[in-house]
Each structure stands twice: as C-alpha cells, then as structure tokens.
Amino acid sequence: MKIKVLLALLFCSAIGFSQSVNDYKAVIIPLKYDFIKTDNQYRLATLTKSNLLKAGFEAYYTNEQIPAGIDRCELLYIDVKRDNAFLVTKLFIQFKDCYGKVIYTSETGKSREKDYEVAYKESLEGAFVSVIALHYKYNGKTVSSTSPAVVAQAVTPVAAVASTHVEEKPVVNLSDPNLLYAQPTENGFQLIDKTPKVVMKLLKTSRADSFIAIKDGIQGSLNAKDNQWYFEYYQNDKLISEKVSVKF
Description:
The protein is of the alpha+beta class. The protein has helices at 2-15, 44-54, 116-132, 148-160, and strands spanning 26-29, 59-61, 75-83, 89-96, 102-105, 109-111, 180-184, 188-192, 198-204, 210-215, 218-225, 228-235, 238-244, 246-247. 22% of the residues lie in helices and 32% in strands. It has an eight-stranded mixed β-sheet with strand order 13-12-11-10-9-8-7-14, with no helix packed on it.
C-alpha cells in the first residue's frame, strides 16, 4: 500500500512539470550556434536578442551579468538549429529549461538567398514569427528546481521493489558557491555556473562515472572517486587533479 501511495505522489509530481515559456523570467543567448564557426558570426546572436526583445522577452548573452535574485532554473536557454536542405536555408528555434528539456520548438524559417548573412537573417526572422505569436508574458510562476528526470528515476526503483539497491553517487553540496550545474548535450553535458557561463564540456564514455572533459582549452577527464568528482589532466608531464562540485 505504501508503495502505491508513493508512486501516486511521484506521478502527480511528474505531471506538474508541464511548463510554458510564460513560466520563465528571461532567456539566455549563446554567442555561437553549432552550425557557425565563430561567436556572433553573421550577427546571429545580435539578431536573436533583438527578435527576443521584440517578442517581449528579457534576454541576456551568456557573457552578460544576470540580475541578482534570478535563479538559473527561472531562465530559458535558446538554441537555433539548422535543418539541412538543398538550395534552401532552414532555421528553427528551441527553448530549453535548465535541465536541457525542450519547452518550445518554433516553426521553421526558410530562405532561398545565396548570401549566408541574408539567408540566415531571413530564416531566423521567419522562425521568430511563431515565437512572437506566442504573445509571451511572464506569469510570475515559480519554476521547480527539481528535474523531471529525477522523478522518472525515482519511480523506476520504487515500482520494481522497495528494497532495490541504489548505486552510491558523489555527494553534492548545494551551498557550494562554486557548484556547477550539468545541462545535457547531444554527446554528454555542459557544466555551467550560476552566471550562467559554460565552464566545462563533458563527453560520454562507456562508464557512467567517467567523462572526457574540456575546460579552458585543456582536455582531461572528469572522474568520480571517493564520493567526489575530479577534473584530471596532465600539465608539464605532471598529473593534476582538481575537485569539482557538480549537480547532475
């Protein structure tokens, strides 16, 4: 009976995670998207911000200071994707939450212009037509800082058997001022600080407790040892091991 009650509570919690763009205070804009080579190439970051402001959003670049009092999970993270097509430039927009969950995907903007700068501008503005049509207005709702993935992970062992052994994971100190937050990417995670700024990129390996890690141009590995995460790399033929506080 206790298990059934717990499952019901967890299920209700999972339903409560349904979000809309109106639940978020502002949007964070990366300076570079996957399909371009340099920061703000073709003025895409600039165009993204101007269109977000036009749509009613409060928007900040990743290298800008976020106003005090705004929690990272009260922010949306925008990404612009290119849909490969012959002789046509196609772009669409995704808004993601602090855990990498897609909250909204726009319609696809298109352009047949051959000049990339013109084509990207037309396509991006075409994609923003559907974003502007959302008539965004922050509703003051407080977004939960508990990930839907956490609820899903909790349901599985409870449903299977109450006595299932849970694998021990590194301890996380939520009060640590240097705490980094993991956001899922296509091949792993990116670790961001409270700014938010991308501090480290992680690539998955065959082991759940070890990642290929890149920080400030230095490639090493992030490994779980003794209930802690460590960024390890070689410097002048010497192994350096730095403790890193991470919340996945």
